[in-house]
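Q: Structure for this?
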Amino acid sequence: MSDVIKINDIDSSDCQRFDKWPFSQDFCVTCGLCSSTCPVSGIDNFDPRKLVRMISLGLEEQLVESRWPWICTMCAKCEKVCPMGIDIASLIRGVRSLRDRDKVPGILHKGLTAAMKTGNNLGLPQDDFVFIIEDVAEEIAEEPGFEGFTAPIDKKGANLLTTIHNKLVNTHTEDLKYWWRIFHAAQEDWTVPSDNWEGTNWGLFTGDDEAMKIMTGRIVENMEKLEIKTLLWPE
Amino acid sequence: MEHKKILIIGGGVAGLSAALALEQLGIKASIVEKTGFLGGHAIQYACKATDQCVKCGACVVEEKLKAVTENPDIRIFLNSQIKNKAQNNGRSVITLNRQPDYIDPHKCTDCGQCYAQCPGKGAIEQGFSPNNHPLYALNADKCLRFTGQDCHICEDVCPEKAIDLNQQPYKHICEINAVIVASGFKAFEPVDKPYGWQVFDNVITNLELERMLRRQSIAVRPSDGLPARRIAFIQCVGSRDATLNHLWCSKVCCGSALRMARVIKTRHPESEITFFYMDAQNSGKDFEKFYAAVQNDIHEIRCLPGDVYQTSDGSLQVSHFDQHDRQSVEHIFDLVVLSVGITPGSDSGKLADRLQLKPELTGFFSASPTQLGIFTAGAAAGPMTIEDAIASAGQAVWQTVQYLKTC
């Protein structure tokens, strides 16, 4: 991030800009609460206060090319404490959306591309997914009090449809069991879809509205197809 | 003019100053005060002189209070509030809701037995100045007797038999020619800010530090009473805040925080004081000189902290972004002082209704109300220093006199 900006280089007459940046950034009083409260500020000198001011000054192009917007975890703690009510996390997402898609950081870009193509960030085939789900369900069924436990897949007319975070069918399969044990204890009538089960939506993190819409639409389609009214979407 | 009567709402520094100025002109003034004590917020403030007077105005409040209490011509209605206002032949008829003097000022010797032995938390309150007499007042909202219990400990322990809880509230009607609204402000209560006020013992407001420095010479940690060596001031807590609809600067906090910092540092040179701010506001014509001098005494950080956590020994860990190192850093303090904003008085909406006044969008009263015969003085019209509150009281009195000439 270059330090010295010539103020004269900024086109202050470009009022159109504010339509594109409707995040109240121009109300910033530079109090610094955002930077002080941010859990990742200081990483690569990341400074949310400076980022907000850069947008306000019309320097978004510099930010688009920088790493800063991608350091943010979008936890929005900054928004919670901002005395001027600036939508800082949304503003950062706005900056991310301006980057060429093939320059989006690797894992996010790959995951989202896979999700667009296959329905999940891992590109996990349907057979493998069903195998993992059934395998974990069998493990639960061996626990005392869970005899006969099964994980209902594509159950039409169930009360609850649940999505799955991809890491739970990858490296963290044990974590599937917590929800499922609760469902069992609560005698919940639940199901998981065999296709488009992905619960994460990296269109959110990459600033890709179109991808976000497709991912969300697929979940809605599943609900309609399986005639389920209630969704549990644990990210 | 000698037959004219003015009602002053609020017994803080503005109300006291207005009453004295009217009295000097031979105009009868009465002060209505909703609490049990005259002096308002300003009487709670500490003198901030170091090797020389810094003109904070705290002592002037004490002088005004003394002058008012010693003046038999100024009528005082404590524990009283405006019920309504009606017009009668060019004069206003004001009805006051009055709590009785549960503690008889003629008998009370300010011994403090009632205060010391009252089992109801906060039911007997203590005034801030020796010029408050009685030095104690009963808060009926917190008194066990008034919440249905059979308690008469204060009546029994009073050696002068000055306390009588069997009295009833009553109405007082007065006919007056003009009203000066000097109802003051409310100090912002930072419960929703991420600084742990009322969660951690050693996080206090600037008002609480003022009271502490008025009581004793040094700043201590409320948790254990030990001297606070490392002290942080956090500015603009509840001021310049759109989410609270408090867009204004509270004007006095930079000056008062820096002056308190200087007092602490002068008395205890080993103190380490950090001032977290967004921009230091000028207050008073000597501020520039003062601000330059204060740079040697304190550590200034142009960034408000994000979080405060308590450590195992009751100290406070404060995190903030360091704009020079461009890193998030943490410091340990013994005491964190929040400079809270000045906000409209808690009853100002109700009071406005009863006077048929329309407050401004901020909730403060207009500095020049459009209603005939009503004037404003002091922080009722917005944040101001003691000095400005006294000046605005003078202006309100001048406006009142001009008005009285027309009626």
